[in-house]
Write a structure and sequence with these properties.
By secondary structure, the chain is of the alpha/beta class. The protein contains 20 helices and 26 strands. The protein has an eight-stranded antiparallel sheet, covered by helices on one side. A six-stranded antiparallel sheet has the order 5-6-7-8-12-13, covered by helices on one side. The protein binds 6-O-phosphono-alpha-D-glucopyranose. 6-O-phosphono-alpha-D-glucopyranose binds next to α10.
Length: about 625
């Protein structure tokens, strides 16, 4: 995701900023930029591509005497990957410059108003409204300082931000603020660094102050003040980091995979934020605006994807058929592309891909396009090939996923499929009451997930207990059949354990022959419409001596009588249970992999983005 670095102090700013950006490269980005106060003005440079490209462009500015500046690596969300859309962004007079992480949800209305009063915009970003708002408060004299103008601006913003502002009129000052997007200050000797991530400050200082939501920092080279938005001063503790750079990138987690599993609630928040209309029992999906008519008339959705994205698609199949009443088929992209699929009028192809570059998924997309089938995408990487080729789509907005095995991207994709279900359902038979129910339950999911993650030690202990088994079954029905397959996939790729994900109803048609005391089963059995059937399957396994770990609904004590171990998840709507049941399965695979001493972030033989067949 985007990265921020700000510097104010006695050293040359440009090399420090570039170096800071390099330490944020691991987060993934598509363009970079910086702005420094040089002479009597602010000079900015931006480049598409790597920080190296920015460094080359910066050229002799690298030797400048500038001692204050801001810099950014951008992971596109609003607007394509272009120099104009790269940060920092400025006001009309190119005096006020801003770097920003997060999404300003109400930027469209703010932009319209600003344009109406004569402001000229140079980018397609949501961020650019910020410098223009600051400019307008200073111009109309409702603020007499940069600090005050930023404060008034923040009060108008809806959404998430970590930001740093630099102004040519107050060059010995940086103003920073945070709302649901991380920001910290490195406190050095007569110098400060402001960054979205500790890895950008660690070379210079280990003393950091973490900003909290709703706080702003006013920083000169030798002092800082932190306030809330009502000017109340806040005393903050300085923390001393004992991290090295690698652990800072992982936010102190031992692996990216664990960091990303712990970010699953945030991923759902980011994928659904600004898209839910709880009072209308509906959702807004801006990326589908241009194809609304096609979607209203669609008679079948065909989903094509690979790996975990495919499994998220299978969760979507149940959702779309049960709640939106629209026939849905899901296929592995590598099959779909070669099996000469028969398209009908009013079919829509939906491809799902975190990277947006998976070769087989892309080939499915091409196949459909050749046959003039409308195409949609659920994609994380903005500007990726798939995101550009689809006619319309929904971005995941979850930042980069670095661990090779998909984790947070799976829950994000499934949550977007729930949004799509409401979107398509409400254009069909879905009642407002049902729409409201799904939306309100979806809103609660991140908090419910956090509860599961807080108890991660329970899963760790189970991983220790079961780590030496060589085979596992993962069983589920209906919504939790794809989750069972995802759980099995995860333990295969991370812990190199043979596992099979199966529909519990198929057990008696063969696989049950394998069950004995050395073949444990994960049984996903929340209290839903297939609960009794799952309990019967658990009993069948127990009768044959197979150990069972059940995933059940909180309060369901009866499962403890049939299973050896039970992991509880909170109650939610049946169609949303996959978002909760998959969390312990991701954690279990992670912990078994770690217990066995494997490199869980880079499992053998696998690639994050499979761009060849
Ligand atoms: C690779 C990754 C999987 C991922 C799959 C699809 O195999 O290791 O974790 O699910 O590709 O990737 P995509 O980027 O298309 O979602």
């Amino acid at each position: 995701m985007c990265g921020i670095v700000g510097y104010i102090g006695k050293q040359r700013a440009v090399p420090i900023l570039l170096d800071g950006l390099k330490s944020l490269e691991y987060r993934g980005y598509d363009s970079a930029g910086l702005a420094v106060f040089e002479g009597q003005r602010v000079v900015a440079e931006k480049a598409v591509g790597k920080v190296k490209a920015l460094e080359e462009k910066v050229g002799s500015l690298g030797d400048s005497e500038a001692r204050v500046g801001i810099a950014h690596t951008r992971w596109a969300t609003h607007g394509g990957v272009t120099e104009a859309n790269a940060h920092p962004h400025s006001d009309c007079g190119s005096k006020i410059w801003v770097v920003h992480n997060g999404i300003i949800e109400n930027y469209k209305e703010l932009k319209e108003k600003l344009m109406g009063s004569g402001h000229f915009f140079k980018s397609e970003t949501d961020t650019e409204v910020i410098p223009h708002l600051i400019e307008s408060f200073l111009k109309d004299k409702s603020a007499d300082s940069l600090e005050e103008a930023v404060r008034q601006t923040l009060k108008l913003l809806k959404g998430t931000y970590g930001l740093v502002v630099l102004s040519a009129d107050e060059p010995d000052l940086l103003v920073a603020a945070r709302n649901f997007s991380p920001l910290l200050m490195g406190v050095g000797n007569d110098e400060y660094l402001i960054a979205s991530d500790a890895s950008a400050v660690l070379k210079h200082t280990k003393n950091v102050i973490y900003l909290d939501d709703g706080e702003m920092a006013v920083v000169t080279r030798n002092e800082h003040h932190i306030y809330d938005l009502n000017r109340n001063s806040i005393d903050k503790k300085t923390h001393t980091l004992d991290w090295d750079i690698e652990s800072a990138r992982k936010d102190g987690y031992p692996h990216f995979m664990l960091k990303e599993i712990m970010a699953e609630p945030e991923a759902i928040g980011n994928s659904t934020r600004g898209r839910l209309l709880p009072d209308d029992g509906n959702v807004v999906l801006g990326g589908l605006k241009d194809v609304e008519r096609i979607l209203r008339d669609a008679e079948r959705v065909i989903i094509s994807a690979c790996g975990s994205a495919y499994l998220a698609g299978r969760v979507g199949e149940y959702m779309l058929e049960e709640y939106a009443g629209i026939p849905t088929e899901v296929d592995i992209a590598s099959e779909f592309r070669y099996r000469k699929p028969v398209f009908r009028e009013n079919d829509v192809l939906l491809v799902i891909s975190q990277s947006g570059e998976t070769a087989d998924t892309l080939a499915s997309l091409r196949e459909a396009k050749e046959k003039n089938v409308p195409t949609l995408g659920i994609v994380n990487v903005v500007g990726s090939t798939i995101s550009r080729y689809t006619d319309a789509g929904v971005y995941q907005h979850i930042g980069p996923e670095i661990g090779v095995a998909a984790t947070k991207s799976f829950v994000s994709q499934a949550s977007i499929l729930a949004l799509l279900t409401v979107f398509l359902g409400r254009k069909r038979e879905m009642s407002i009451t049902m729409g409201k129910r799904i939306v309100s339950e979806l809103q609660k999911i991140p908090e419910l997930m956090k509860g599961i993650l807080q108890n991660k030690e329970v899963i760790k202990n189970l991983a220790v207990k079961y780590k030496d088994y060589e085979h596992f079954f993962y069983l589920g029905r209906k919504y939790n059949l794809p989750v069972a397959i995802e759980g099995a996939l995860k333990i295969k790729e991370i812990a190199y354990v043979h596992a099979e994900g199966y529909g519990a109803g198929e057990l008696k048609h063969g696989p049950i022959a394998l069950i004995d005391k050395n073949f444990p089963t994960f049984a996903i059995a929340p209290q839903d419409s297939v609960y009794e059937k799952m309990v019967s399957n658990i009993e069948e396994i127990k009768a044959r001596g197979g150990p069972v770990i059940a995933i059940g609904t909180e309060g369901d004590k009866s499962l403890e009588k049939v299973a050896d171990d039970v992991i509880y998840i909170p109650k939610t709507l049946e169609m949303l249970t996959p978002l909760l049941t998959v969390v312990p399965l991701h954690l279990f695979a992670y912990y078994v992999g770690v217990e066995k001493g494997y490199d869980v972030d880079r499992p053998r033989n696998l690639a994050k983005s499979v761009t060849v067949e």
